[in-house]
Amino acid sequence: MSPRPGFVLEVDRSTPSTLFWHGEGYRLEKLPIGSRVIYAPEPFHALRDPDAAVRQALDHPLGDSQPLRSLLRPGMRLTIAFDDVSLPLPPMRSPDVRQRVIEAVLEVAAAAGVDDVVLIAALALHRRMTDDELRHALGSRVFDAFAPNGLLWQHDAEDPSNLLHLGQTEEGEDVEINKRAAESDLLVYVNINLVAMDGGHKSVATGLASYKSLRHHHNVRTMRASKSFMDRHHSQLHTSNWRMGRLIAAAGVKVFQIETTLNTDTFPAEFRFLQRREWEWSLRDRAGFLATSKALERTPAEIARRLFHSIKSPHDLTSVQAGEVEAVHDRTLQMVHAQQLVPVEGQTDVLTMGLPYICPYNVNSIMNPILVACLGLGYFFNLYRNKPLVREGGVLILSHPTPWAFNPVHHPSYIDFFEQVLAETTDLVEIESKYEHAFATDPWYRHLYRTSYAYHGVHPFYMWYWCAHALEHLGRVVVVGGDRAAVRRLGFFPASTLADALEIASDVVGRDPSITHLHAPPLLIADVS
Amino acid sequence: MKALVFEHNLARFAASRLASAVAGSGHGVGIGPLELLEIDPPELPGQGWVRLEPRLAGICGSDLATLDGRSSRYFEHLVSFPFIPGHEIVADATGGRFDGARVVVEPVLGCEARGIVPPCNACAGGHKGSCDRIAFGELAPGLQTGYCSDTGGGWSAGLVAHESQLWEVPAGLADEEAVMVEPTACAVHAACSIGSSSSVVVLGAGTLGLCTIAALRAFSLPGRLLAIAKHPQQRRLAAELGADEVAAPDEVTRAARRITGTFGLGHVEGRIERLAGGVDVVLDCVGSAQSIEESLAIVRPGGEIVLVGMPGSVRVDLAPLWQREVCLRGAYAYGSERRPEGTRPTFELAFELVEAARLGRLVSASYPLERYEEAIGHAAAAGHRGAVKIVFDLRRQSRLPRMTSPKEAE
Ligand SMILES: [Zn+2]
User: Fold this and answer.
1) pTM for the full model?
2) B90 C-alpha to center of ligand 1: Å?
3) In which domain, by residue range, is B313 found?
4) CA dihedral over A186, A187, A191, A197, signed as positive or negative
5) Mean pLDDT of A512-516
6) What is the pLDDT of residues A200-232, one digit of tens each?
7) Which of A329, A384, B111, B315 could cross-link to B123 by cystine, CB 3.0-4.6 Å?
8) What is the CATH number of the domain that holds B122?
């Protein structure tokens, strides 16, 4: 039986309550009759032999690329860069896709007699990965072969001795990337394309870039012109990355891009109810829901967080393609769209969404209020093609506990951003012009980014810029069940229940608004007509 | 006349201390050593003394500490009992060269008021606050009006003051502004005592903290001025009066690190317990063990901590003071300040600042003497209740029968 496509439910009298994610937990909500609920398509079947599929991709590349083996020769310098801990979400059960792909690449390289090989985690301005996280992504064989010999690197966007300025694009954008990667005879990039934003030229041009280079597209102007940043053909973020990628190629950096796509099988068996449609819940799903809900009621936040962050996702591989960046990425997008697109008719006045415990920047960490905003107004709001799910001037209702809490190791500059910057203003342009430079160049943040496990000092700004399109578009943002002070600091409206939130929304959209709930994760892209 | 009298009664004092310890500052008043009594006005101690009828008299943090029994035993030799508190005073004067004038009292009881000739070196140099004879001379001990049994104090219908203590209030200055001159003078003295500095933190945003922020902006021009304020009203005023940044009390170290760009130190990387470098100067307008610890955590090596708020007996780890060669000193009262235009009395500068920065707006509420328990309770919870300065309003109090001066009798 082939997997069913996505589905838009219209709530009627017989519809059971709808599951809303709520951080480290979930709530059952009764949506008003007539509301719509958008469900992701069912998971595509996994590739029967993923390792064979990887080998096949390396041997039969797309675009004008030659097979990997013919690009390799003894004495050459080979660098393999890979996506970092921000992908996939939740982290996948072993073996991770990166492990499969990198083992296959190393096998071909060994056969070709290549012995100068360095692995680089493409962090951009993200925190460094821990050894455990690297071991999980790469597998023990690869980790043990490279890490002890100093051949497993993490990209350092603040290391002037290992950055190379390749030039400026025709738009005057500096292209500065990891020197080892740029000077290698071949740069293999290993990607996990969880959402449509990922991959393509963005892999190298962003993942291996410096702040000097990133700031050309990670800014308010660009993000306001990315509608959405999940749709590369309508995203200035991507247009800029594509210019940079082409300059990188023109500068002589030879990139062999390997992209992978995953199905929407997001949660392991004991949490399977999280990706089933409520009226189809089996007795086992019901029992799973009741058991975990009951347990979570009594569990302190810290323990609940650890419990959820230990979830490893099935995330089966649905495709792998390799070769020339643009040809590869076109194929990848087709696969992502095939798995995730759900046709939706017309926009809505009120869009509701339950936000889960995890986003790309809090793996094994706390989802602080800035990340809550970014996940809701950045990622989920932008999960559309054509038109936003919610109409211009409409209301976005998020459900998340939004604690006034931060992980000081991972997000030190976030704390300052929240305490100082957002206390002063939530205005994007003012924030960018008045504060970004100081945070981006603060020596302590730089020290923590380079030597500890901290996101770069400028990173919270990017999270806020990620909300730019939504902040311009929305009439109001309401957060259900969040810390009231934290929610207000974000410039949003706190509400204790969904009913309260709808009441607050009615000031903007009237008494009888159309309501749509985005039932994610599992992730989907609403194709709004 | 009516007066709030502070008696030296150990049993009551102990009870007050206990009550305030249990219930918080200002709660010790009802059972404490303060009583509203009908008493005779104080006698004129001698030549150059005049009678004053207070119009407004402020309640100061040091008054609250005294009432709660929190003030240091250090002051035992520098006060005389019973005394009438109140040293922030705007009053009508009778007699002498200020006869009929509205005046502000400069409360330090230095050599001149005490009839000590020749004056001590400090007084001779215009630095009354540093007078070393405040327990001697023709008056009972008392560092200021409001702590001396011979002079009376502001929390009454009448007191006496030496002409050398008086400043005539310009006609255009309201009573609410004039009553702010004394606390402002303390702040001006503190602000004028620090050199040019690129980063300054003011801890505390009660009356003294806010006046200090205004004084720093007017007289010291710090590069970056960070104010630490707890309550919304305090935060707003701190920003209005010239703080570049205002942070909450639990954000002190992080905010101080930000304005200096130094590194943080903590048990977990990214969490900040103290700073590796730090700010040039901390003006501590709180004076608690915690505020001094915080000051030590954020001041740079070779930097300076100025205690502007009155501290008491505190327990503080001085290892950082030693290792970082930090200077810890007090800033008390006033006298004269060296300014680019020459040496000027602190009070003169304070008058200017009160007017320029409109510090009269810090007076939040006034009470008649009879409602002193309420007034003191309000002052003790001022920040929490969105207030800053609480004063006694004596303008509608039954005034003293106008006394005939000896000259007029002739
Ligand atoms: Zn003297």
Assistant:
1) 0.92
2) 24
3) 194-330
4) negative
5) 98
6) 999 999 999 999 999 999 999 999 999 999 999
7) B111
8) 3.90.180.10
Q: What is the CATH number of the domain that holds B250?
A: 3.40.50.720
Based on the structure, what is the number of domains in chain B? 2
User: Does one domain contain both B313 and B357?
Assistant: no
Q: How far is B262 from chain A (nearest CA, A)?
A: 6
**Which of B252, B253, B271, B274 would you mutate first to test chain A, the one with the most A CBs within 10 A?**
B271
Q: What is the pLDDT of residues B84-143, one digit of tens each?
A: 999 999 999 999 999 999 999 999 999 999 999 999 999 999 999 999 999 999 999 999
Indicate if B361 and B386 belong to the same structural domain.
Answer: yes
Per-residue pLDDT tens for A290-309? Answer: 988 888 888 998 999 999 99
Residues of chain A with CATH 3.40.50.11440: 50-262
* Helix (H) or strand (E) segment spanning residue B5: strand B2-6
Q: List pLDDT tens digits, range A411-441.
A: 999 999 999 999 999 999 999 999 999 999 9
Return d(Cα B300, Cα A493) in angstroms, integer: 41
Find the CB nearest B270 among A419, A443, A452.
A452
Vertex A70 angle, CA A69 and A71, to 5°: 90
CB contact under 8 A, B269 and A411: no
**Are residues B248 and B309 located together in one domain of the fold?**
yes
**CB within 8 Å: A419 and B248:** yes
Please tell me which residue of chain B has the smallest CA distance to A411. B270
In a domain, B100, yes or no: yes
Q: Of B274, B295, B330, which closes a domain?
A: B330
Q: Which pLDDT belongs to residue B28?
A: 53
CATH superfamily of A50-262: LarA, N-terminal domain (3.40.50.11440)
Q: Does B269 touch chain A (CB under 8 A)?
A: yes
Q: How confident is the model at residue A313 (pLDDT cuts 50, 70, 90)?
A: very high
B279 and B376 assigned to the same domain? no
Domain end marker among B296, B330, B364: B330
CB contact under 8 A, B254 and A415: yes
Q: Are B319 and B328 in contact (CB under 8 A)?
A: no
Going by pLDDT thresholds of 50, 70 and 90, the confidence category of residue A108 is very high
- B345 in any annotated domain: no
The SS3 of residue A270 is: helix
- List, as ranges, residues with CB under 5 A of the ion ligand 1: B 110-111, 120, 123, 131, 133
Instruction: Identify the pLDDT of residue B405.
Output: 42
Q: How near does any CA of chain A get to the CA of B95, in Å? A: 54
Please check whether residue B347 lies inside any domain of the structure. no
List the one residue out of A23, A526, A521 whose CA is nearest residue A275: A521
Q: Is residue B337 part of a domain?
A: no
Is the predicted pLDDT of residue B337 greater than 70, yes or no?
yes
The string of pLDDT tens digits covering residues B346-384 is: 999 999 999 999 999 999 999 999 999 999 999 999 999
Whether residue B133 sits in one domain with residue B206 = no
| DSSP string covering A315-350 | --EEEEEEESHHHHHHHHHHHHHHHHEEEE-S-EEE
How many CB atoms neighbour CB A529 within 10 A?
A: 11
Distance B334 CA to ligand 1 centre (A): 13
Q: Does B238 contact A at CB distance below 8 Å? A: no
Q: Where in chain A is the domain with CATH 3.90.226.30?
A: 7-43+267-310+340-528
Lowest-pLDDT choice from A25-29, A251-255, A434-438, B166-170: A25-29
Report the DSSP beta bridge partners of residue A167.
Answer: A175
B258 part of contact set with chain A, CB < 8 Å: yes
List pLDDT tens digits, range B300-309: 999 999 999 9
In chain A, what residues touch B270 (CB-CB under 8 Å)? 407-412, 448, 452, 454
User: At B380, which amino acid appears?
Assistant: A
Same-domain status, B10 and B87: yes
- Chain A nearest CA to B44, separation (Å): 55
Q: Are residues B8 and B136 in the same domain?
A: yes
Closest-CA residue of A relative to B272 is A408
Angle between helices B181-192 and B207-219 (to 10 degrees): 50
CATH topology of domain A7-43+267-310+340-528: 2-enoyl-CoA Hydratase; Chain A, domain 1 (3.90.226)
Phi first, then psi, for residue B35 (nearest 5°) are -140, 140
* Maximum distance among all Cα pairs of chain A, rounded to whole angstroms: 71
